[in-house]
Write a structure and sequence with these properties.
Elements: H1 4-10, E1 14-19, H2 24-31, E2 37-41, H3 52-62, E3 66-69, H4 75-83, E4 88-91, H5 97-107, E5 134-139, H6 142-146, H7 148-152, E6 159-162, H8 164-170, H9 181-197, E7 200-204, H10 208-216, E8 221-226, H11 227-245
Parallel strand pairs: 1-2, 1-8, 2-3, 3-4, 4-5, 5-6, 6-7, 7-8
Helix pairs in contact: 2-3, 4-5
Amino acid sequence: MIPIRARLENSAVTFGCWVTIGSPHSAEIVGQAGFDWVIIDTQHGGLAEAQLLPMFQALDLTGTPALVRVPWNDEALIMRAADLGAAGVVVPMVNTPQDALRAVQALRYPPQGIRSFGPVRNYYSADGQSEDPLCLVMIETAEALENLDAIADTPGLDGLLVGPVDLALSMGHGLSLEAPAPVLDAIGRVAGICREKGLICASVALGMANAAEQLSRGVRMLSSGADSLFLRRAAAQEVQELRALDADGKGPA
């Protein structure tokens, strides 16, 4: 497997998706699709921590690095995800530099952090690839935008991941899967800060047109879609094509 850091360093742009179904089988299928990485979502996805290990093992077979979005900025949750083999951890609702430092320190061993060592996976070692996970914190509130420079200066932080829907809500634009202009401007601002600080700028695409817009504004690590959405879309397309075979609704003659 090509380590995720190498993928990010060697490519101008990388693409991934969300894994929300708690199944090693579906994780393996997504891993074979060709994404550069995936993010297993334990914040909003329908899966529990106990399902992470077999999902990591399935994704390892496909050579696709798997990050984990933890449910909250909690040291125990971050450490557990890392111990089970996450290539990186995505931490939601980081609003202050103190929040960012808490996330980073939970993921790093002393003296950089407070993480304790536990060789859960059989390839773990004190200096192994899996022991250098990415730390991405989410920028998804107006408060986080106000503190953006200070958050980006957090030692040990690898990148910022914009949550455009929650950000739009926090900025007063209501619940919508269309990113309004102020949110796109905010994404551009995050991308600029990331370039300045040498950080990864990540975000979530809201359709292909939105993906193109975000890439043009400087996003370099972009997620698009989720396993559950892919399944629904493919199933709906199959039904639509079948119904077209019986266009008059009368069935066989």
